[in-house]
Design goal:
The complex is a heterodimer of chains A (about 110) and B (about 110). Chain A has strands spanning about 5, 10-15, 20-25, 30-35, 45-50, 50-55, 60-65, 70-75, 85-90, 95-100, 100-105. By secondary structure, chain A is mostly beta strands. In chain A, the strands form 2 sheets. In chain A, strands 2, 4, 5, 9, 10 and 11 form a 6-stranded mixed beta sheet that branches. A 5-stranded antiparallel beta sheet of chain A has the order 1-3-8-7-6, with no helix packed on it. In chain B, the strands form 2 sheets. In chain B, strands 2, 4, 5, 6, 9, 10 and 11 form a 7-stranded mixed beta sheet that branches. The chains are: A mainly beta (about 110), B mainly beta (about 110). The interface of A and B includes residues 42, 93 and 98 of A.
Chain lengths: ~110, ~110
């Protein structure tokens, strides 16, 4: 089956720093979504991005479907950005596969 | 606000005692999903409903069942919980092929 790899697995930032999270996938996918899981376990939608680039405030994402990767950019990080960032890919037939996540900690 | 609601937020059960988790949505989405997430792991899809059509993932244990009595509600039944079933259970909804929206989850403890 399709493999989804996220890097880095862990990331510690000083508040105000920028970062790039990566998601690689091993086969063609129908869609891709980025989530932030907060400390209470809620998965928050960030981007639904099968291809192209989207921006929302300090966050932006780019998916290059032909090269099978997606990037999530966080600029001017804040302590509230801490948590786990997941990418999830959707293959045919509703199959949804999550990457292992990137655990981010932003220090004040 | 339209949303996905899960009840209860925390559930404690005893080994082998059946338990039911609830999910409701006001988004009128035709697809509802149940995921299991164990500590420090990624969510893992258990099954989904597309309208009334049920699809079980191949590796979902028989101990897990689901019911969807109408568009708004979906239930996860664990017939005989074991210690290994302690996890966060996440419900999500979507329109066909579109963004998935997650509820806050139910954290299940098995004693």
């Amino acid at each position: 089956g399709i493999q989804v790899e996220q890097s880095p697995p862990d990331l510690i930032l000083q508040e105000g720093a920028n970062s790039t999270l990566r998601c690689n996938f091993s086969d063609s996918v129908n869609n891709l979504q980025w989530f932030h899981q907060n400390p209470w376990g809620q998965l928050i939608n960030l981007f639904y991005i099968p291809s192209g680039t989207k921006q929302n405030g300090r966050l932006s994402a780019t998916t290059v479907a032909t090269e099978r990767y997606s990037l999530l950019y966080i600029s001017s990080s804040q302590t509230t950005d801490s948590g786990v960032y997941f990418c999830a890919v959707y293959t045919g037939g509703f199959k949804t596969i999550f990457g292992a996540g990137t655990r981010l900690f932003v220090k004040a | 606000d339209a949303m996905v609601i899960q009840n209860p937020r925390y559930q404690v059960t005893q080994f082998g005692k059946p338990v039911t988790l609830s999910c409701s949505q006001t988004l009128n989405h035709n697809v509802m999903y149940w995921y299991q997430q164990k500590s420090s792991q990624a969510p893992k899809l258990l099954f989904h409903y597309y309208d009334k059509d049920f699809n079980n993932e191949a590796d979902t244990p028989d101990n897990f069942q689901s019911r969807r009595p109408n568009t708004s509600f979906c239930f996860l039944d664990i017939r005989s919980p074991g210690l290994g079933d302690a996890a966060m259970y996440l419900c999500a909804t979507s329109s066909l092929g579109d963004t998935q929206y997650f509820g806050p989850g139910t954290r299940l403890t098995v004693l």
